[in-house]
Amino acid sequence: MVRLLWVVRAQPISPGVVVGSVAAAATTGALIAMGHRLGSAGLPFAAIGALVLPRSPNGALVVLAGVVLHFVAMFLWGVVFVWLTERLARRDALAAGVVAAGNFVASWIVAWTTTRGLSSVLTLGDRIALAVVLAGALVVGMRFAFDSREMHDRAPAVDRLMM
Q1: What residues contact 37, with CB distance under 8 A and at least 6 apart?
Q2: CA-to-CA distance for 144 and 16, rounded, in angstroms?
Q3: Which pLDDT score is estimated for 114?
Q4: Residue 24 falls within a domain, yes or no?
Q5: Full residue range of the structural domain in which residue 130 is found
Q6: pLDDT digit string (tens) for 132-144?
Q7: What's the pLDDT score for residue 8?
Q8: What does each C-alpha distance from 118 to 77, 123, 144 come to in angstroms?
Q9: Sign of CA dihedral 144, 101, 113, 38
Q10: How far apart are CA 47 and CA 86, in angstroms?
Q11: Does position 156 have pLDDT exceeding 90, yes or no?
Q12: 4 in any annotated domain
């Protein structure tokens, strides 16, 4: 029974998916906090959703589209991060900085060309904070992506301690 509580079953999940999941969760939380401070927790997601639904009368649909687009983007950045980390000889902090900077610049370019998007509603400080959260989440996500075997190897020792 104790073994079930301490061990995460090794599953054939791509590291990019694991890293993207952590990045999506962390940045979604950051965007909700930033939006709440601006007056509506859905505001950043509505700005993202306005890229694909610019004239939708249904605000909830625009926010939902923004959440979906944000998750897709974070998963893609997660895959790029894993690929880049493999090419940079496991220098995950450097790869995280490059990916976060790429996200920052891409967001700025989208806002500059379309007058919509996340950079159109967030201040520079919020965008920098989001980039820092993204970089940190990518590094933490990489730890989750490759720690399942280590947790499995420690399980017998944990079982002995708990009995």
Answers
A1: none
A2: 11
A3: 92
A4: yes
A5: 15-162
A6: 999 999 999 988 8
A7: 58
A8: 16, 10, 28
A9: positive
A10: 33
A11: no
A12: no
* pLDDT tens digits, 56-101: 888 899 999 999 999 999 999 999 999 999 898 878 899 999 999 9
Domain count, the chain: 1
Burial of 22 (0-12, 13-18, 19+ CB in 10 A): buried
**Alpha-carbon torsion (30, 36, 38, 43), positive or negative:** positive
* Residue 108 backbone phi and psi in degrees, to 5: -65, -45
- 3-state helix, strand and coil shares in percent for the chain, rounded to the nearest 5: 80, 0, 20
Q: Which two tokens stand for residue 147?
A: 């720690």
10 three-state secondary structure? coil
Is 68 within a domain?
yes
86 within 8 A of 142, measured Cβ to Cβ: no
Q: Quickly list DSSP for 15-55.
A: HHHHHHHHHHHHHHHHHHHHHHHHT-TTHHHHHHHTTT-TT
User: Could you tell me if residue 119 is inside a domain?
Assistant: yes
- pLDDT, residue 28, reads 96
